[in-house]
Amino acid sequence: MTAASEFVCDGVHNAGNAPVRPRVTEVRRDVQDAERPAERARVVDRRTVLCGAVAMAMALLVYVNALHNPFVYDDYHTVIANTSIQTLTNLRAIVMHDVTRPLVNFTYALDRVAWGPAPFGFHLTSVLLHALNVGLFVLFARKAGVDRRAVFGASALFAVHPMLTEAVGYVSGRSEVLCATFFLTAMLCQQNWIRGRSAVWFAGMIAAWLAALLSKETAAMFPFVALMYDAIATSNDPQRAARVKRVYLPLIAMTAIVGLVRLFVLIRIEYPGQAAWHWRYLLLDADVFRRYVAMMFVPTGQALFHEVRALNGIWQPRALLDLAVVMAAAAGAWRLRRASGVASVGIAWFMLLLVPSSVLIAFDQGEPMTEHRVYLASVGMFLAAAAGMEAIAARLANRPLALRAGALVALCAVVVSFVVDTRRRNDVWSSPISLWRESVELAPSHPRPRLLLAESLQDAGRWDEAVDQSRIAVELRPSDPEAHVVLGKSLALSGRWNEARGHFHDALEIDPANGPARRAVARMNEVERQSATK
């Protein structure tokens, strides 16, 4: 019997055999497992392994059509023009290329050596890491005490959810996927450590956390997530207070210090005079959070670029809605801490892992909204979903068979729709032109996706179309020197040099130090001199 058929049969035929109340939530399961091991079957049994294997296979199969996609956007800097990954022998170059995320760059070097410069191997590694993360999620959720069938349902959603395509199918999104691998490993080590097992698990937890930090800075939230999980899993453990005092609080203090140092470097060294705190951007954080939540439930309007319109006051209807969603999520995490500790941790996990990117938004650094940032945070959402499925199954245990079967059919329909959407998203990523055209269609009044579409059209030799897109970008934001540069390049490629020169000069009038415009004018002058001497 397959894992999927077992899931259906167990849910329909056997759910009635279980009492309702204990199936809803048992937030002390980790302690009960340790105290009464004979009363419960092993949480990681053959059926759990089979469920995990099926979910991992789903994660692999749904991304098959992404393996031959090209490099796009930031892949030029992270892979194509990255000379440090051409050999594994120069570890110093690998580390120094991106000193904050050296492990990610090391995986790129491994891909380059193993597969060559083509994108296939890079995509394959990202997909394999995603499948591994699905398996780690199954282990963690089962060890947290969630019913096997609910874990399988949530892991299936994790495997095929369209919102994760940017992290998995975009090579430059590798940092999110790799960070999730080490983060989940650290959580699994913590589960074993707090059950009083060998101190080796504590060392493994710290090592995995450090590896996650060297993959992406969002892993700094691990001590907070670990503290919350310990609180719901071992509240009756007399050693928990000692762990809080000797481990979690020092880790949180260290995280705060490192975070402050990182902000100092950002403000004073990397972007002197450019990075400053903006209180009103916290409203944008709330707006982005609300949109992330909505897209996790109904993944529509996905794109590589998302326009986030400014909010000028707290009393705007959109701002009130955003704040209501944030407060509802926080209140839900708090209220569920006793009724369903796993769901509480899952919601808090989702919120906490979005904090680092929210801080960057408040400092006006980077894009306000990018889908790949949700990958590790979404693990918390799927954990809460598993607890929710378990609760629903308990409520339906004594209901008519048709109602229970209908719930399972609805879940299967959601999974199938996600599979279709994910494969469609992979097809969109098969061409930079289709990728940026989608962004233009969703944000027609913003110049940036049009400029990126114009550059993709330039690379494809479709210069007249590039002129059209970049001209609209100039009309949308005539004070943007980059728009004039892209339009000038498009015009030059199409043979309209006089008009191109005019836009390069417009860019220099706006920004006299603009390097691309200066180089373009110098190159045009050189070509004209060479033509005159022939």
Summarize the structure in short.
The chain has 26 helices and no strands. The protein has helices at residues 3-14, 20-24, 29-35, 46-61, 75-80, 91-97, 102-115, 119-143, 148-160, 165-169, 174-194, 199-213, 222-233, 240-270, 281-297, 317-339, 341-352, 355-362, 374-395, 401-428, 432-442, 447-459, 463-476, 481-493, 497-510, 515-533.
Average pLDDT works out at: 88
**Helix content, binned percent:** over 70%
Spans of at least 5 consecutive residues with low confidence? 1-41
Give the topology string: H per helix, E per strand: HHHHHHHHHHHHHHHHHHHHHHHHHH
Shape: globular
Q: Helix count?
A: 26
Structural class designation = mainly alpha
Major beta sheet summary = none
Total of domains: 2
Strand content: under 5%
Distance between the termini: 79 Å
Number-wise, the strands total: 0
Cα-atom Rg, whole angstroms? 26 Å
Question: In words, what does this structure look like?
Answer:
The protein is an all-alpha fold and 534 residues long. It has 2 domains: 62-428, no CATH class; 432-533, Alpha Horseshoe (Serine Threonine Protein Phosphatase 5, Tetratricopeptide repeat). Helix content is 72%, strand content 0%. It is built from 26 helices and no strands. It has helices at residues 3-14, 20-24, 29-35, 46-61, 75-80, 91-97, 102-115, 119-143, 148-160, 165-169, 174-194, 199-213, 222-233, 240-270, 281-297, 317-339, 341-352, 355-362, 374-395, 401-428, 432-442, 447-459, 463-476, 481-493, 497-510, 515-533. Helix 8 (119-143) packs parallel to helix 11 (174-194) and helix 9 packs parallel to helix 20 (401-428). The longest helix is centred in the middle third of the chain and has 31 residues, at 240-270. Mean pLDDT is 88; it is low at 1-41.
